[in-house]
UniProtKB/TrEMBL annotation:
Protein name, per record: alanine--glyoxylate transaminase
GO MF assignments: alanine-glyoxylate transaminase activity; L-serine-pyruvate transaminase activity
Native organism taxonomy: Eukaryota, Viridiplantae, Chlorophyta, core chlorophytes, Trebouxiophyceae
The species this protein was found in: Apatococcus lobatus
Swiss-Prot/TrEMBL GO biological process terms: glycine biosynthetic process, by transamination of glyoxylate
SUPFAM superfamilies reported in the protein's UniProt record: PLP-dependent transferases
Length: 410
C-alpha cells in the first residue's frame, strides 16, 4: 500500500484548508509564533505548603501512552484509584472519585452538591480556606453562619456543639489542616453531633490526607475533599472526594438541580461508575490520573500507619532544629499544631522574605511566607509525601540557619 507524504497535494476528494465561502484568508501572522525549543524547568525542593515534589515512579507514570477516557483499560485504572481513595479515606463507601481540578474544585463540588439555596451551613472559619468556603457557599445561595476563632487556634468541641445545636445547619464545614495558619482541627465527636442534629459533616483535607490520621467511617464524616499535589505526592490537577451514604442520599433527593453542570456529582459519579454504568460527562485527565494511581499505590505499599508516623517524626525533627535557633511556633497549643504544614513565627526585625530568597537561591529550597492573615508574620514549611525525609528537613534547617546568620540572628 502506498503512503502519501504530508507535503504532497491533497486529492480533490479530501477536505482541504481552503477558505470557506465568505471567509477572508489573510497571511498568517508570526508576531506571536512560539514558544520555541524544549521546555526548561529548574530543579527545586518544594518544602512549602504545596505542591510537593513527586517521586520518579509517579513522574514516569505520566509518560505512559494515553488511553481514551472511555476505554475499558482506563476504567480499570479509575477503579484502582477509587480503591486507593477508600484506603486513604478509611471508608467502605462506594462513593469516591477524583474531581478534575485542584482542591478548589473539590471544595466547589461539595458545596454545589450538598447545599441548596436557602439552606444553612456553619463554616468553621479559622483561616483562608474557611473564608473561601464562606464566599463560595454564599455564591450558591446558602445561608452562611461564619463561625470564627482567634488566629492560629482550633475550634473547641463546645463551640461547635453550640453552633450546630442552635442553627441545625444542613452542613458543618471544617478544615482538618488550615495551611494558612498551621492549625490542626480535632474532629473527635463531631460526626455523632452532626447526626444528632440532621447535619452533614464536610471536611477539607487538602494538606492533610495521608499525612495525619483520618478515619472517615469511624469518625462519622459525611464528605471530604482533598488535593492530589500535597501529601499524596501526585501532580496538581485532581481532587480526591468522598461521600458517605448520608451525603449521597442528600445529593439524590435534592429539590433543585445542582447549579454547576461540571461539578454535578449525579453526572460525574455516573462517569466513575457510582450507578453501575459508565456515562460520558467530560474527558478524564488521563495522564494526571496515571500519576494519582501510582501515588495511591505507593501509599498502599508503605501503609498509612507508617506514613503518618513518618510525617510526625519529620515534624518533630523540624521543630527540634528550629527551637535550637530560638524560633517559635505560630500555633501556641501543641495539640493544635499541624505536622504537614508548619508555621513559624517571624521574629521582630527579621526580614522573612530575605530568608526565603536565600533558601531558594543558595539551596534551591522553597520556604513559604504566610498566607492571608499570616503574611509577614510566619514562615510555612511543608512536610509532605515524597519530601517527608530527614535529609530534606535537615536541608531546610540549614537554609534557616544560614539565612538567620546573614541577619545577625545566630
Amino acid at each position: 500500500m502506498s503512503r502519501r507524504l504530508a507535503a504532497e497535494p491533497a486529492p480533490d476528494n479530501i477536505v482541504s484548508a481552503a477558505p470557506r465561502p465568505g471567509e477572508s484568508r489573510p497571511a498568517v501572522s508570526d508576531v506571536h509564533r512560539g514558544p520555541t525549543g524544549p521546555i526548561e524547568v529548574p530543579s527545586r525542593l518544594l518544602m512549602g505548603p504545596g505542591p510537593a515534589n513527586v517521586s520518579p515512579r509517579v513522574a514516569a507514570a505520566q509518560t505512559l501512552p494515553l488511553l481514551g477516557h472511555m476505554h475499558p483499560p482506563f476504567f480499570r485504572i479509575m477503579d484502582e484509584i477509587q480503591q486507593g481513595l477508600r484506603y486513604v479515606f478509611q471508608t467502605d463507601s462506594p462513593y469516591t472519585l477524583l474531581v478534575s481540578g485542584t482542591g478548589h474544585a473539590g471544595m466547589e463540588a461539595c458545596i454545589a452538591n450538598l447545599i441548596e439555596p436557602g439552606e444553612k451551613i456553619v463554616v468553621g472559619n479559622k483561616g483562608i480556606w474557611g473564608a473561601r468556603v464562606t464566599d463560595l457557599a454564599s455564591r450558591y445561595g446558602a445561608d452562611v453562619i461564619d463561625l470564627q476563632t482567634p488566629p492560629a487556634t482550633a475550634f473547641s468541641y463546645e463551640t461547635l456543639e453550640q453552633a450546630v445545636t442552635e442553627h441545625k445547619p444542613a452542613v458543618l464545614f471544617l478544615c482538618q489542616g488550615e495551611s494558612s495558619t498551621g492549625v490542626h482541627q480535632n474532629l473527635a465527636g463531631l460526626g455523632e453531633l452532626c447526626r444528632a442534629n440532621g447535619t452533614l459533616l464536610l471536611v477539607d483535607t487538602v494538606c492533610t490526607l495521608g499525612g495525619i490520621p483520618l478515619h472517615a467511617d469511624d469518625w462519622g464524616i459525611d464528605a471530604i475533599y482533598s488535593g492530589s499535589q500535597k501529601v499524596l505526592g501526585a501532580p496538581p490537577g485532581a481532587a480526591p472526594l468522598f461521600f458517605s451514604e448520608r451525603a449521597f442520599q442528600k445529593l439524590r433527593n435534592r429539590k433543585t438541580p445542582v447549579a454547576s453542570y461540571y461539578f454535578d456529582l449525579n453526572l460525574v459519579g455516573d462517569y466513575w461508575g457510582w450507578f453501575n454504568k459508565r456515562f460520558y460527562h467530560h474527558t478524564g485527565m488521563v495522564s494526571n490520573w496515571y500519576g494519582v494511581r501510582e501515588a495511591l499505590a505507593m501509599t498502599a505499599d508503605e501503609g498509612l500507619d507508617h506514613l503518618w508516623q513518618r510525617h510526625g517524626n519529620c515534624a518533630q525533627m523540624l521543630w527540634g532544629g528550629l527551637s535550637s535557633m530560638g524560633l517559635e511556633p505560630l500555633v501556641e497549643v501543641e495539640a493544635e499544631r499541624l505536622a504537614t504544614v508548619n508555621t513559624i513565627k517571624v521574629p521582630e526585625g527579621v526580614d522573612w522574605a530575605a530568608v526565603n530568597a536565600n533558601a531558594m537561591s543558595k539551596y534551591s529550597v522553597e520556604i513559604a511566607g504566610g498566607l492571608g492573615g499570616t503574611v509577614g508574620k510566619a514562615w510555612r514549611v511543608g512536610i509532605m509525601g515524597y519530601n517527608a525525609t530527614p535529609a530534606n528537613v535537615e536541608l531546610v534547617l540549614a537554609a534557616f540557619r544560614d539565612g538567620l546568620r546573614q541577619q545577625g540572628r545566630l
